[in-house]
Amino acid sequence: MQQLRYFIEVAAEGSISAAADLLYVSQPTMSAAMKDLERRAGRALFTRSTRGITLTADGTEFLGYARQVVEQAELLEQRYLGRPPSRRLLGVSAQHYSFVVDAFVRMVRTSGAAEYEFSLRETRTWDIIEDVRTLRSEIGILYRNDFNRKVVDKLLREAGLGFTPLFLATPHIFVARTNRLAGRERVTLDDLEELPRLTFDQGANNSFYFAEEILSTRSSKQDIRVSDRATIFNLMIGLGGYTISTGIISDDLDPSIVAVPLDVDERIEIGWIGHTSIPLTGQAERFVAEMREVVAGFGVELVT
């Protein structure tokens, strides 16, 4: 059991020394434990390099079983031995969606852990896939539509990942409450011609298939790329700009921004990605359930 716990931390950190520091054991002890685990498993679980370690295909499959065993053992210990829950509970990487933050807040509040170590990364599409592939995060949240589906699905297959749909949404624009379009029942693309278009920067992997917004290849007179959600909201207020998204926005988290339906023949499919060979942990399942509950209140079409 101790070796399995070590193994899970090493996989999460991508480094034997970092995992050793986290668990307050010496690096030689951690390294010896991993070598012994590989010997007992009868196969290589890690690929080692100067940049750290990554899991082999066997290691990825082994991690799925290890997580289940350790999670069940910890539940048993908590129930009958009064031991506290594990600190490391869940890592999530996501595109910039407020419903993800809302669900994350609910999940943390209901975790019941006196001590915990969660992570939530709002990041670029390519990085989300890489985070989940390398197990930095257990699940990732992103969107697909007819334009990017083939490319995204190909990348996921190559990484050993699968996409599970959560809901289907009709496109909306997000604008400040003070924007002249905020009170409209619907807006058209023509209505947006003179407004700055705000999009999330995709970094070095700047393929238009990775864009977080639909209609990303459509020309715009004024374009501004940003890296975080706070900045994009500030620019909506300060410059009267807009971005295109799902229409799901939390009044508690973003009270100054409103969503207005966009009159286009498009659908946005939001889902989570994870390793096809690794079942979700109980905490990840709870987070997915919280996301479904959050979006259910916005009248979107949940995928069952």
Q: Supply the helix-strand structural class.
A: alpha/beta
Beta-strand proportion: 15-25%
The strand line-up of the biggest sheet is: 4-3-5-12-6-13
> How many alpha or pi helices?
9
**Cα gyration radius (Å):** 21 Å
Quaternary assembly: single chain
Percent of residues in helices comes to: 25-40%
Element order, helices and strands?
A: HHHEEHEHEHEHEEEEHEEEHE
What's the mean pLDDT score?
88
Largest sheet geometry: 6 strands, mixed
N- to C-terminal separation? Answer: 36 Å
How many β strands by DSSP?
13
- Gross morphology is elongated
Structure description:
- The chain has helices at residues 2-13, 16-23, 27-41, 57-80, 98-109, 125-133, 149-158, 229-239, 282-296, and strands spanning 46-49, 52-55, 88-94, 117-122, 139-144, 161-169, 172-176, 197-200, 223-226, 243-245, 257-261, 268-275, 301-302.
- The two termini are 36 Å apart.
- By secondary structure, it is of the alpha/beta class.
- It contains 9 helices and 13 strands.
- Strands 4-3-5-12-6-13 form a 6-stranded mixed beta sheet, sandwiched between helices.
